[in-house]
Design goal:
Blueprint (H helix, E strand, L loop, with lengths): L24 H7 L19 H7 L1 E6 L4 E3 L7 E7 L2 E4 L18 H9 L10 H4 L9 E6 L2 E6 L2 H7 L2 E4 L4 E2 L1 H6 L6 E4 L3 E7 H7 L3 H14 L1 H6 L9 H10 L1 E6 L7 H4 L4 H7 L2 E3 L7 E16 L2 E8 L4 E2 L1 H9 L12 E14 H8 L10 H19 L20 H5 L6 H9 L8 E5 L8 H8 L11 E4 L2 E4 L19 E3 L6 E3 L9 H5 L6 E4 L18 E4 L12 H5 L5 E4 L5 H10 L1
Antiparallel strand pairs: 1-10, 2-9, 3-8, 3-10, 4-7, 4-9, 5-6, 11-16, 12-16, 13-14, 13-15, 13-16, 17-19, 17-24, 18-19, 20-21, 22-23
Helix pairs in contact: 10-14, 13-15
């Protein structure tokens, strides 16, 4: 018997970190008197997570003032908002970047680029006064003020904005922001306070537990199915020509499922150290290889790993991102096969990499409502071949007697491995490279910096070029994890799932909808460091800023140094594109999309 002494400790709980440590018993008691909480069935909640506990630890009370921007279109969030008192407006029309306090993307010519280069400051992290002042929004359309103990952004002409833009009014008891919170997607609209109002912010963990109350869950699901599921299904290329009556039946049959932990970044540093086999084994199983297909899986957000059994372990063959389909190969084939041929089983397993949110369409619905409306060119290669065989067989039957028929289609044997790239949209020739990318979550990067070490001479021209366009302060150093001949440099990757954007109190970090670049808008960055702390790759730094003479900016009230978030901005607007790649004399560096494999595999093929 093992006599090694043990040390008793209390197991950490997510409630060890409440959303708002200042929530009191009185606050919880008051919320219990308000809808929908006063109508919830308390017996529906587990003893370990009672309703009062959810309100105490997963909720935060907010007081908002007229004109305050509560959520911004395009932002990412992990919480929903319930209106308790007052009114807010959901803006149907999009506001401009200027109205939201963001810096609109602007391209510059070679002349201005050269002028900037010649006038660059000798001091790192130089800013103008307009870039530092929190109330220096472009055109005066916005400002930042303190509301209670937090910074808040305001629209200056709220009445004029509401006159010029179509909007929908929400009152007490209405919920908004739940789709972005539950499915890790960008906010689809901007919400502004019309009057002074009280809100309850509910983080996604609590929101999911609240769904144990059947009435609340039904309300959420009906709202999603009515407003958002049709939009999400229409985004799938295979369904774009689906008649409306068929689409309605698909909507009714589609199930919503989530796997893994949405806050995957909290476990990133630990899981990336695991052996690939152990990491795969730890990932939630969505579909197991060898099962008969029962549903088509559509990835809504997050990532899935496609793998096959390899001895006692599994080997990764592809990864799936937003919009990709799993099972289309097998399901399309089975729906068209003759009765004399056996059904094709799932040829791969699917596991959630960190977090995976998916839509599940039953195969019966796919066969009857979707398949007849899919264009032949969009079917997997094996299904196209089988469909062609069926067409030829029917033609032959009309031309010859039954005893002269052509060979039955049962002789056709599909090889799904030949069509992985069509089914998954992502594949790699090198299993080890693929598993390395997934293990380190590099597949999250849409603009990753990759260096071919066989070509790199360590001249650091890339770093010097970055410094030249950022006032002498480069946004990266030439270091990062290495696999074989490739180095994945520690620079902002402008991620598919930008967890850095979650929690910014003013929306200073935002993604440009046209370019996909995630950038910092200095005038409304309050230097809180939330984005830097959230980035799992440590690609955002907080820096004290100075003027062109090197004099540090300080807060006029506290005297503390002004800090701003600093990160790669892809040299946004420069005619050369990213200066790092343009300056490399040996074509050793590339900014590349790792959420899809063809760019990297094509780049490597050119160098082989």
């Amino acid at each position: 018997m093992d006599s090694t002494p043990t040390i008793p400790v209390q197991r950490p709980s997510r409630w060890d970190e409440p959303l708002d440590a200042s929530m009191t018993d009185a606050d919880v008691a008051w919320l219990r008197t308000r809808g929908p909480f006063n109508q919830m069935d308390q017996s529906a909640f587990p003893r370990a997570t009672p309703l009062s506990g959810i309100l105490r630890y997963d909720c935060r009370l907010h007081r908002v003032e007229p004109g305050e921007v509560i959520v911004r279109e395009g932002d990412y969030g992990n919480s929903a908002f319930l209106l308790v008192t007052g009114n807010v407006r959901v803006l149907v029309d999009s506001l401009t970047d200027q109205q939201l306090g963001r810096q609109p993307a602007r391209s510059i010519g070679w002349g201005e680029a050269l002028s900037r280069f010649l006038r660059r400051s000798p001091h790192p992290e130089t800013r103008t006064a307009e870039q530092v002042s929190i109330n220096a929004g472009p055109g005066g359309h916005q400002s930042i003020r303190q509301v209670d103990d937090r910074p808040a952004i305001f629209l200056q002409d709220i009445e004029g904005v509401l006159r010029r833009h179509e909007s929908v009014s929400l009152g007490p008891g209405e919920l908004f922001g739940e789709v972005a919170a539950m499915y890790r997607s960008p906010r689809t609209a901007t919400v502004v306070a019309e009057t002074e109002a009280a809100l309850v912010e509910i983080r996604w963990q609590g929101l999911r537990i609240l769904r144990r109350d059947r009435r609340f869950a039904d309300t959420l699901e009906q709202h999603y199915r009515r407003h958002w599921l049709p939009v999400h299904l229409r985004e799938i290329p295979l369904l774009r020509y689906l008649p409306e009556e068929n689409m309605q039946r698909v909507i009714e049959a589609t199930e919503l499922r989530s796997y893994g932990r949405m806050e995957w970044n909290a476990d990133y540093k630990k899981t990336r150290k695991l052996h690939p086999a152990d990491q795969i084994a730890s990932e939630p199983l969505v579909v197991d290889q060898g099962q008969l297909p029962t549903e088509l899986i559509v990835v809504r957000s997050g990532f899935g790993r496609m793998c096959v059994r390899h001895g006692a372990a599994h080997r990764t063959v592809a990864y799936l991102g937003k919009g990709h389909l799993f099972g289309i190969e097998e399901i399309a084939y089975n729906a068209m096969r003759p009765e004399s041929m056996p059904a094709l089983q799932y040829q791969h397993s699917l596991r959630a990499v960190g977090f995976l949110d998916a839509l599940s369409i039953p195969i019966e619905v796919f066969a009857t409502e979707i398949l007849p409306h899919i264009r032949k060119s969009e079917l997997p290669e094996s299904a196209q071949t089988l469909q062609k065989a069926f067409t030829e067989k029917r033609t032959d039957r009309r031309r010859v007697r039954s005893d002269q028929r052509s060979e039955p289609a049962a002789s056709f044997s599909p090889d799904p491995s030949q069509d992985i790239e069509h089914a998954a949209g992502v594949s790699f020739d090198s299993t080890s490279m693929l598993e390395f990318i997934v293990q380190h979550r590099l597949n999250n990067g849409r603009e990753a910096m990759v260096i071919d070490l066989h070509r790199c001479t360590r001249c650091d021209d890339c770093v010097k070029a970055c410094a030249d366009v950022h006032d002498g302060n480069p946004r990266f150093v030439r270091q990062g994890i290495v696999h074989d001949r490739l180095q994945f440099v520690q620079a902002c990757m402008h991620c598919s799932d930008p967890v850095c954007m979650i929690g910014c109190p003013t929306g200073a970090i935002a993604r440009d909808q046209n370019t996909g670049v995630v950038s910092i808008h200095d005038p409304i960055c309050v230097g809180c460091g939330v984005c830097a702390a959230a980035c799992p790759y440590e690609n955002i730094a907080m820096a004290e800023v100075v003027d062109r003479k090197g004099r540090p900016y300080v807060d006029e009230k506290s005297g503390k140094a002004i800090r701003k978030a600093a990160k790669c901005d892809q040299c946004s607007g420069l005619p050369s594109g990213p200066a790092c790649a343009a300056a490399c004399p040996h074509d050793a560096l590339v900014r590349i999309d790792l959420s899809e494999s063809p760019p990297l595999s094509d780049w490597l093929e050119k160098r082989s």
